[in-house]
């Protein structure tokens, strides 16, 4: 079986010949080759160099971070613009509506090879109303021809997940308000936040309806979940209804659903299991995570796919390679409790990672991950 066969077998509830092995190498690959990591653009054509890197290392492809699989259009009275500064170091997203305007910025930081957020764009009730008005007005048009090109390019070297973006609360926490401001807002103006969240999520469900008709086998949802940010109680109040509805609609259309949980796991695995997710992506055990591989399986139960296994710090040359090897083996050992397992990274393979460890993990999967 190739990596595509193995991944799809696990999602179908079958037992492959070995644990699937896939990685998100994008951030590592861009840094290694000093290539742009430009959040202001989307790729119509497949990232052939990145996909070829996966093929050469033996790590299955799955995450098309900057792909363009559908168009987003706003109402006629909403103007949304994205622009970069002359030096290319700042990206600005600006939204103008009849209720007012908001904007957010990100600034390039070469030392982390990532875009930092210097200031949040939503601070007041009026700002929230502007955001809800704009995002609530969106319509979505398919670009399945783009998806078909990506899928053909990847072939047997993996799968192509269909990204669905953030829920309303994910937008507030990670794009427009930040964790602290959003936490204060739900306490100080819960009615305003509720109105905004409900309006944005209702619009998000129209995108889910479109993705349910897409050619993708697997749709990925998620708000970069971490149970110390969206605790089970917080999730129940602000996000659960949306996720239950979205996952239900996708399942009804025959799609599999992965949810990205790249932070604290205790409580988060159970809450995603309970809303019907098929897979948790980016599962991060210790040293950076809070649940061991065995504890992850105990909380997840036997049927939820756990995709991840290696903490980001263990990929770096400063970490002992023996610790890296042991982490991979402990993850693979959980296949004895359930074959609903994928060997991957806890989120992305980080910039500066030791390339030899990418090959080592693949070798360990082939030699120790057999069924």
Give short descriptive properties of this protein.
41% helix; six-stranded parallel sheet; alpha/beta; 371 residues; four-stranded antiparallel sheet; 14 helices; TIM Barrel
Strand content is: 15-25%
What is the fold named in CATH at topology level?
Answer: TIM Barrel
The total domain count is 1
Percent helix, as a range, is 40-55%
Q: What general outline do the C-alpha atoms trace?
A: globular
Radius of gyration: 20 Å
For the record, the CATH architecture stands as Alpha-Beta Barrel
- Secondary-structure element pattern, one letter each: HHHEEEEEHEHEHHHEHHEHEHEHEH
Low-confidence stretches: none
Q: Average pLDDT, to the nearest integer?
A: 97
Overall structural class, as computed from helix and strand content, comes to alpha/beta
CATH class: Alpha Beta
Q: Give the beta-strand count.
A: 12
Your description of this structure?
The protein has 371 residues and is α/β, with parallel strands linked by helices. The chain has a single domain, classed as Alpha-Beta Barrel (TIM Barrel). Helices cover 41% and strands 18% of the residues. It has 14 helices and twelve strands. The chain has helices at 3-11, 26-32, 48-57, 125-135, 144-154, 168-176, 179-188, 190-211, 232-238, 240-252, 268-274, 293-300, 321-333, 355-368; strands at residues 70-73, 79-84, 90-97, 100-109, 114-116, 139-142, 162-163, 218-225, 256-261, 279-283, 305-310, 341-345. The strands form three sheets. Strands 7-8-9-10-11-12 form a six-stranded parallel β-sheet, with helices on both faces. Helix 13 (321-333) packs parallel to helix 14. The model has no long low-confidence stretch (mean pLDDT 97).
